[in-house]
Write a structure and sequence with these properties.
There is one protein chain. This protein is an alpha/beta fold. It has 2 domains: about 120 residues, Aspartate Aminotransferase, domain 1 (Alpha-Beta Complex), CATH 3.90.1150.10; about 250 residues, Type I PLP-dependent aspartate aminotransferase-like (Major domain) (Aspartate Aminotransferase, domain 2). The protein has 14 helices and 13 strands. Helix 1 runs antiparallel to helix 13, helix 5 runs parallel beside helix 6 and helix 11 packs parallel to helix 13. The radius of gyration is 22 Å and the shape is globular. Bound molecules: pyridoxal-5'-phosphate.
Length: about 400
């Protein structure tokens, strides 16, 4: 039997508890949506204010050199590298995840001439499937989408690229990156990992797994802010062979020579396209300081423990209330979120949010709860379950206000 006192004791023993003060979170709010938009690190506003008032207002265009704006995408990529098991100069910040996925899928397909299948997961986040579909059409490939459990069996010698998301956005189910990467390589395919729901939530081992390419976003567990730029990883062994399709001037070896012909940068910079969204890069770079000194194995242990407590409390408190566990019970197979299915999921989530307990909803019936281990407390889990129990058992969700769909769910 888990009690609130037990959760408070877990918080008291939590060696990451001090990290919560690195974020500016409203005191009356429980935030379990860092898997959608990370909380704001408290150091970011001062850094942005400096970028605006000093570097832009006074430095003007000189700041590209004098305030070191120009190398910020590389610098920020190098900070992300530690979090995803990549080497220095294998990661760069640019564009959105969707755009980076497009660049990487085209580049990877070009590296496997003679093969014509892009293998993807049917239940992946829609943008991944949409982009893969467009790349397949452009490159004369077939996009083959299968269920997650059928991926490994579907990798054969026609497959050029396996494109997967490490942690599924809806269920939180996690692939064994090392095993699937090995299977892809044994069949002669390349693999692309989308790390949107893993970067910053757990240690990721891209190089130890032998991954070829990866992409991921800056605004979820990396806390870079709404619409933060994304990142892209290319294993250093591939970089010379990579020809990405969006050949903008920032990917050129000498952008300011302004030559007529495109010559790709010899390193990871070739994944760039145009001018960086500089304020977004600065926000992301400073947000990443929240991870300074954080041991990623400890981060993962806490994420697993938060998820386990959530699941145990669901069993204990929500029995008979129509909630179905939609995430793996086994933590080994789980990312940093737990999803519950409920027929009235949308209205229940709106009722929760009205009580300042913030998760989100994914159609048709999934309530998602994300556990960002840097700032989520064990008592938050207890309090969330208590509110859920009250809302469902009293039908507090059953109002026109809570049932009315907003554009962002
Ligand atoms: C797995 C996955 N990939 C990509 C995205 C979004 O990509 P973008 O940054 O291009 O909007 C999301 C957003 O939630 C996601 O969950």
């Amino acid at each position: 039997m888990i009690t609130r006192e037990h959760c408070a004791a877990l918080d008291a023993a939590d060696t990451l508890a001090h990290c919560r003060a690195r974020f500016d979170l409203p005191a009356d709010t429980i935030y379990l949506d860092g898997n959608s938009l990370g909380a704001m690190p408290a150091n970011v506003p001062a850094r942005i204010e400096r970028a605006l008032k000093q570097e832009w207002a006074h430095g003007l265009i000189r700041s590209w050199n004098d305030a070191d704006w120009y190398p910020a995408p590389q610098r920020t990529g190098n900070k992300i590298a530690r979090l995803i098991g990549a080497g220095l100069d294998e990661v760069i910040v640019a564009d959105s995840t969707s755009v980076n996925l497009f660049k990487v899928l085209v580049a990877a397909t070009r590296m496997r001439p003679g093969r014509n299948v892009i293998l993807a997961e049917r239940t992946n986040f829609p943008t991944d499937v949409y982009i893969a579909s467009s790349v397949a059409e452009m490159t004369g490939c077939e996009l083959r989408c299968v269920d997650p459990d059928d991926i490994v069996a579907a990798i054969d010698d026609t497959v050029a690229i396996v494109s997967l998301t490490h942690v599924n956005y809806k269920t939180g189910k996690r692939y064994d990156m090392e095993a699937v990467t090995r299977q892809a390589h044994e069949a002669g395919a390349l693999i692309v990992w989308d790390l949107c729901h893993s970067a910053g939530a757990m240690p990721v081992s891209l190089n130890r797994s032998g991954a070829d390419f990866a992409v991921g976003c800056g605004y979820k567990y990396l806390n870079g802010g709404p619409g933060a730029p994304a990142f892209v990883f290319v294993a250093s062994r591939h970089i010379e062979a990579v020809r990405q399709p969006l050949t903008g001037w920032h990917g050129h070896s000498k952008p300011f020579d302004l030559t007529h012909d495109y010559a790709p940068h010899p390193g990871i910079d070739r994944m760039l396209t145009g001018t960086a969204p500089q304020l977004g890069v600065i926000a992301l770079e400073s947000a990443l300081e929240a991870f300074d000194g954080v041991d990623l194995d400890v981060l993962r242990d806490k994420s697993v423990a938060l998820g386990n407590v959530f699941i145990e409390l669901t069993d204990q408190e929500l029995k008979g209330l129509g909630c179905m566990l939609a995430s793996p019970r086994d933590a080994e197979q789980r990312g940093s979120q737990v999803s519950l299915g409920h027929a009235q999921g949308y209205a229940i989530m709106q009722a929760l949010i009205a009580r300042n307990v913030i998760g989100d909803f994914r159609a048709p019936d999934i309530l998602r709860f994300g556990f960002a281990p840097l700032y989520v407390r064990y008592v938050d889990i207890w309090d969330t379950i208590a509110q859920l129990k009250d809302i469902i058992s009293t039908d507090a969700w059953n109002t026109e206000e809570f049932k009315a769909r907003k554009s962002v769910t």
